[in-house]
Design goal:
It is a single chain. The protein has about 400 residues and is of the alpha/beta class. The chain has a single domain, classed as Metal-dependent hydrolases (TIM Barrel). The chain is built from 18 helices and nine strands. The protein has helices spanning about 5-15, 40-45, 45-50, 60-65, 70-80, 90-100, 110-115, 120-130, 145-155, 170-175, 175-185, 195-210, 230-250, 280-285, 305-310, 330-340, 360-385, 390-410, and strands spanning about 20, 135-140, 160-165, 215-220, 250-255, 260, 270-275, 295, 315-320. A seven-stranded parallel sheet has the order 1-2-3-4-5-8-9, with helices on both faces. A two-stranded antiparallel ribbon has the order 6-7. Helix 15 (about 305-310) links the parallel strand 8 and strand 9. Helix 1 packs parallel to helix 18 (about 390-410), helix 6 (about 90-100) crosses helix 17 (about 360-385) and helix 16 (about 330-340) packs across helix 17 (about 360-385). The model has no long low-confidence stretch (mean pLDDT about 100). The structure holds D-arabinohydroxamic acid and zinc ion. D-arabinohydroxamic acid binds near residues 25, 268, 271 and 323.
Length: about 400
């Protein structure tokens, strides 16, 4: 099979692929408005807000006090009309508009708003999943968010395409505040993790994993994350989180390297990145062989050592080119090093979609790049005389884009 034939097969298999998106911030339509969608949410995505303020001297608070539609107009003018939208987040907006069949050339925000006036949310969910080639997504379900807690207590019709994960950052990042929420929910915990707190935190975690049928538990963690100390964070992890994950047979997903709110004025856009210590991943995989760890790291500088660490521990599954790494040049670099180091034993990407329509651009862009990397690797095999078949390419892609995850979570 020559390169042209190979590319045609890979492109066809990628186009027919049913993706399981292992980390998003999306929700079904009946989650009380928690699902963001539509052109104004697309234009006020925090990635674009950070880029908007590269050019604007507007006071942060003044901007965020504006109605969402006015914020979107300012972003559209500043990042699209006043200068070419060449950044990845800017290009993503245009990919969405184009794939929705809108006239990108018109540059008419009013026309795009008119289009949305004719849509229903449920219809848009169906259309976006189809356009994006996504079969299922995993939500980020936060029991510490009162709005989301209320939805789970009330009960929802649910949507089989939306799977759950239990996100428990406050337990590790601000235990006293988390303890207050747990006390309010009837769990006998104290802010200093005293008394029967460990057992009660385990009961809380068990109750919620079962209530939402979580596929995994997750937390985002700072570059300084360590388990060597006797900190509250380490104790909650070792005495509560990891035991419940073992009992429930689910992975713990660690998203490591976030420096929260280095610029608080930017709100969600205010977080930054730092190189973390890979030793903490090694240590946990070593000391807890009965636990499964999904890990993604935010710093480019951590990627090679994370891939090497995954070679050492089969209870470690690396996933995604997260957040600041979700740019074409880095997705290509990281995917190539992972294929060269881990073969097909990793999850190449997740969308991290915060707005429904992000599924379209994030998967269009990543599928194209990952396909390009795989074309090179299959072509390299061909050069040795090894002939890979279309069925084998389909098998490999299915493993990368859903099989590895399903096997690791046991679903
Ligand atoms: O902690 C996380 O899950 C991150 O993905 C944050 O939500 C971040 O703001 C984000 O949306 N990154 O893409
Ligand atoms: Zn996220």
């Amino acid at each position: 099979m020559n390169r042209v034939e190979l590319k045609a097969i890979i492109d066809e298999q990628l186009a027919n692929l049913e993706i399981v998106d292992v980390h998003t911030h999306l929700f079904p339509a009946d989650f009380d408005g928690l699902l963001l969608w539509g052109i104004d949410e697309i234009l006020t995505y925090h990635y674009l807000i950070a880029e908007f303020f590269r050019y604007s001297s507007l006071d942060y608070r003044e901007f965020f006090r504006l109605p969402k539609a006015r914020q979107a107009e300012l972003v559209w003018q500043t990042l699209f009309l006043d200068r070419s939208p060449v950044s990845e987040a800017q290009r993503g907006v245009l990919t969405i508009l184009n794939r929705l069949g809108l006239d990108v050339k018109s540059r008419s925000l009013e026309a795009y708003r008119e289009y949305y006036r004719g849509l229903t949310l449920q219809g848009q969910i169906d259309q976006v999943f189809k356009l994006a080639g996504v079969k299922e997504i995993v939500m980020t379900n936060d029991p510490f968010d009162p709005q989301e807690r209320a939805v789970w207590k009330r009960g929802t019709a649910g949507d089989p395409r939306f799977k759950s994960s239990l996100r428990i950052d406050p337990l590790m990042m601000n235990f006293p505040a988390a303890a207050e929420v747990l006390q309010g929910e009837g769990y006998n915990v104290t802010g200093d993790f005293g008394g029967n707190s460990a057992a009660e935190v385990r009961r809380f975690l068990t109750d919620w994993v079962e209530k939402i049928d979580a596929l995994y538990m997750a937390a985002s963690l700072p570059p300084t994350f360590t388990v060597d100390d006797n900190s509250l964070r380490s104790r909650v992890l070792k005495e509560c989180i990891l035991p419940v994950c073992r009992e429930q047979g689910i992975p713990f997903a660690m998203m490591i390297g976030v420096k929260k709110l280095v610029n608080p004025g930017l709100e969600l856009a205010g977080d930054s990145v730092g190189k973390a210590e890979i030793g903490v991943v090694e240590q946990l995989c070593s000391e807890y062989p009965e636990n499964k760890f999904l890990v993604t790291m935010l710093s480019r500088e951590n990627q090679h050592e994370l891939a090497i660490t995954a070679r050492k521990y089969r209870n470690l599954l690396v996933f995604g080119c997260w957040w600041f790494l979700n740019n074409p040049s880095l997705v290509e670099e990281i995917t190539a090093l992972r294929v060269e180091t881990l073969g097909l034993s990793f999850i190449p990407q997740h969308s991290d979609a915060r707005v429904l329509e992000h599924l379209i651009y994030k998967w269009d862009h990543s599928r194209e790049i990952i396909g390009r990397v795989l074309l090179e690797k299959y072509a390299d095999l061909g050069a040795t005389g090894w002939q890979v078949s279309a069925a084998e390419i389909e098998r490999d892609l299915k493993q990368l884009f859903q099989g590895n995850f399903r096997a690791f979570v046991g679903r």
